[in-house]
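Collaborator request, handled under Task 6.
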Amino acid sequence: MTKEKEPLAPIHLHLELVSDYMSDEEQVMLKRYGESSTGTSISRDILVPFDMTLHALHYTIQKLFGWQNSHLRRFILSEEDYHRVTNGTVRGWSDLVGTLFQPPSEGEHDLFWDDDYDSGNFNAWLRKKYTGPYYFRGQLEQYEQAREDIETLLDLFPDLEIRESFSDFMDRKAYDREAEPKNIGRSALIDMTLEQMNNSLFMESGTENLLEKLLVDELLGYEDEHSGRDGIPVVNELFYEYDFGDGWRVRITRRMSFNELISGRLVTVQEIQDARMQVIRKHKPVCIVIEGLSVMDDVGGLSGFARLLKEIYQGESREESADARRWAKGMGWNDKKVRPEKML
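C-alpha cells returned to the collaborator:
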C-alpha cells in the first residue's frame, strides 16, 4: 500500500555515501576515526522542501559531505531501473530524453550554467543555491531543445556499423594476439540496443544522466511506490556521482517515517517538528541526523579518506600526522562535531 503524500510537506531523504571497495583496515579506520557505524558508509538524513530540484539537491549534497563543487557530477538511476525504463534500447532511451534524461549535448555545453562562484564565502554561495525559490535556466533541458538535440543525433546515423563489445574483442584476442576489433553488422542508430550504441559510438556524456530540473518529489518514490506522471517514472532510489576519478557515490532514498531514527535515539519528535517548520518557513533543507565525519575533495574516495585518517591519528611521526592534518585543513576539511541543524 502506498502512503499518501501530504501536499507541500517536507520530504525526508536518507543520503548514504557508500563504497564497495574498502579493505578491512580501511573499514576499521573509518569506524574508529571517521565515526562511521558500518565502516563502509557515511550518511545524512535531511528534510527538503517539496519543490526541490535535483539541481538544488546537488548543492545540498556538496555541503553535507564537505565537497567544494570542483569536479563533474551527475544523478543517475540504478542499473536495474535504467534498463527497466529504457528497455535497453536506443529508442526507449531517446523517447525519454527531455522528460527524464539529459540530451546528448548537455554535459558538454550547458550543465554548469549556475556554477558562478568567484570569491567570498563559499558556504554562503552554496546556501543560496539550495535555498528556494528553485528555478532551472539551463537551455538544453527545455523540452523542445532537448528533443531537437536528440533528433539531431539520431538523424546523423541512419546507417551505422555495429562494433563488437570490448569483452568479446578481448576474448578473441586471448587466443589470437593479432586480432583486431570487428564489425558485426549495420543498423540505424534508433534501432540499436544501448549496448550496441555504446560499443559503436563515443558518447562523451553518456546516456544515463538525469535532468537536473526534475523535482525530487516527482521522481523519487517510497519503497513500494512505482507509478509516475507526465512521462516520468517513479523510482525508489537515485544515485549521485561526484568526481569520477575519486568515484564518490551517494545513494538517495525517500523515507516514509522517522521511527527508526527516533527509536535509535538519533533524533527526537520535537527536533523533527522544529526541522519541518524551518524547512517550510525558510524554504531550505535541514539536516536532522549526521552519521560520520565530512570528507573532502581529491582524497581518493572513501578508501583514501580512511587512509588519510590513519595518517592523521596513527602517523609514524608527529610531523607526518601534522602534515596530513594540515593538508586536510587546506582542502576545507573540518573534523569538529557539528549539530545537524547547523549543517546547512
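The cover message to the collaborator said: "The chain has one domain: 11-157+201-343. Residues 54 and 103 are 16 Å apart (CA to CA). Please let us know whether this matches your experimental observations."
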